[in-house]
Fold this protein.
Amino acid sequence: MTDGRGVFIGQRRDRLGARLLMLLTCIRLGEDFGTGFRVNWFPQGADAPELDNPEELFAPDWMEQHFLSEKDFEDLNRTAAPIWSFQSDTSPNRLNAHLASGRAVIVEEGFEILAFPWEDIEAIRPRYRAFMDRIGFDPAIRAIMDRADRVLSGQGVSAYHIRRGDILNGLPWKHTTWPAKVEPEEYYERHLEKASGAPAIMFSDQPELLKRFQRGHPHLMQMSDIADLTGMTRAQRDFLELYAMSRADQIIAPIISAFSMAAARISGRQRLVFRDVLTEQEIAEANERVIGRVRQGPSVFLNPSEAAHIYSKAAQYLNAGDRSKEAYDLAWPIIEAGADNAFLPLLQALNCFYLGKWAEAEKLAREGLNNKQLWPEDHAALCALLGAVLGARGKRWGAGRMFTRAFWAKPMRPDVIVLGSRMLYRNQLPERLCPPIDWELQRHVRQRSFTPFSNLHLVQWKVIVRQPCNFDMILLDWHELALDQKARRLLDSGDRLAQLKEGLDRVEAIAPEHPSRRSLAAMLGYRLGEVSAACAIDESRAVLALSNENPLYHKRLAELLEAEGDHQAARFAYGDALALSPDSPFLIYSSGRFLERIGAKDQGESQILQAAGLDNETASIQGAAGQILMRRGEDHKARRFLERARDLCPSYQRFANQLDRISSRS
């Protein structure tokens, strides 16, 4: 406390960069609001074992003054409020009153400069650099910090950060691509040439890369040119490198890197990415150099894994430039050199897809799906790709099976959305494999194209010309079938619902008064809070008076009636839907979930088990049946359903965990 005034309490559960920024934010807030700050360094759920010994960084007397014991934190936390609860205020009055009453404020913001609506963030940002002097660091650490200040501050230095390390060699990180974290060395080379002779320092978690750059650029510094960190702990090395990076006049780094982002925040400056410092022409030149290096073969890389990761960048440039044959040819030497990265078969199958090598694409995709190291997102993308390949080969049922596996696993994955749109536009999805959906409307409800290379393996224009479909239209009715938790939370996402409504409003091929549009608009209006459940019910009944044969419209009415609390009427509406499609496992499953929610547990479980007996292609239905039988102690029956669920989506760990539990108690 400061004269009875409440204090700011900083805490973070993650790693060094975020914790440092949290500290600086607390210092800033304490200064501006006339109070002190404390630190809860060991919050519950902390995940940074390298920071378990803060005395490696901080002076004992400073820790004594500012670090809270577990008991002290619990006492203060009883009446504390989170900082975010004041961030919508238009004046500091409520926050000042809270502090004046002696109550604390919890600060967990760790990656952005914090500013309230009444403050000027650009006036606050530059102050962060000086706040580092307010932290009581260990004298040996402070001495190296001072040396970094003398060497780097105000010298016009550019700091470069190259992220590699576990991405190249660590498990499971090496088995997926990192387009926002891995930037090719050629980008750094191009900027070094552009700023020829200017002072520069490079930081990397891959020492070999530092040596490689220093051979070509002798003036390029690294941390060892400032201080010898041999013998220091990981926390000390990480902090000193991060601090040294923050002293540079500009920091140039990959788009996503917590390390360099934290350094930039501490410096009080904005971090730069290559599109900020290189022209489009210079980036194109760098891309050609990347392709040229890949063309030299795997031997010019640190190892086959590095060759694979840099190839993933080159392949996108080549395919975007309609040079898929080059991308295809350049992949084989890396594969033959022994690169075992699980994403490689996916990339080569994509190359085959672009080239129309359907049989080879199918073979590579099936082989790739057998790799247990494949990441969940890549598994879904590869399932969708195999579906598109099978569709192109006229194997419509197989195409639909693979798409539904991809969609229910990762329905928001851009690759899945784009490839699924292609299959839908080309009538390659059998309706029998899917729940009741307004397919004609779905073809016309679209979303904006994805940003090129942003979380995408494929090149969109080589897959579809039109904008991709907005498959949130399917999730609006059937989110319970998705395994991905973010996808299941559609109803709580106002932004996604608003985008879906925007897509519906843009539809021109179907009249606004058509039952399909009216039904969807009623449900969206209710979910967005624009109309009451009662109004949406009235509109849904009006739609059914015009089009009574669509089970989807009855299901939507049932959901609205449930929301209004009229469970009896909702049961009748589900009954009407099932009468129109009595063998639909999706309707039976949804009805079963509804019965569970209203307390008819036994009847609901019976329907879910019935649905699992009718459907053999939907992991969520198979898994739900297995979980019911596990709870009943019928492990032998449960195993059959859970094994099927696991085989449909092997990257979803829950099913494997449940099978392990069955094995452990048998």
The first strand starts at residue 8 and ends at 10. The CA atoms of residues 175 and 342 lie 5 Å apart. The chain is about 55% helix and 5% strand. The radius of gyration is 29 Å.
